[in-house]
Every structure is written in C-alpha cells, then in structure tokens.
Predict the 3D structure of the following.
Amino acid sequence: MIQWKQINEFTEPDWEKVNAERHPPTLFWRGAKGAVFGHIRDGELFDHKWVYVCDSNKVTHFTEVEGPEKA
C-alpha cells in the first residue's frame, strides 16, 4: 500500500548538493491526470529523465520511491 503525504509536507532537496541520480525519485499525484514519477525542481515537475511534465502547483500528494535494496 502506498503511503501518500500532502504536498505541503514535501521539501525540495538542495540540487547543488544532491546528485539527482542518487536522490530517491518520488511519485507525485496530480488530481486531474493521476500519478507521475519524477522530481520537483524550481517549481516545475520533471519525470525521471528530466522531461518537463507540468506545473508543480497541480500536484496534491507525494510518496518517496525506494528500491528493493532499501527493504
């Protein structure tokens, strides 16, 4: 079961200090379009390949995604 958190609990990482490949990707929920997998950066939402998706203000919830090595 996915444990969703309200988007106002999300803290954007300091992208100058964190390499995006090492930062866990996040699953975001957009009410009108469903889930998108990626990162929020500078108020915009990008997927895991850094392709522009939508304004981050349309995102309502999020959950971090961890690989099996974290289990």
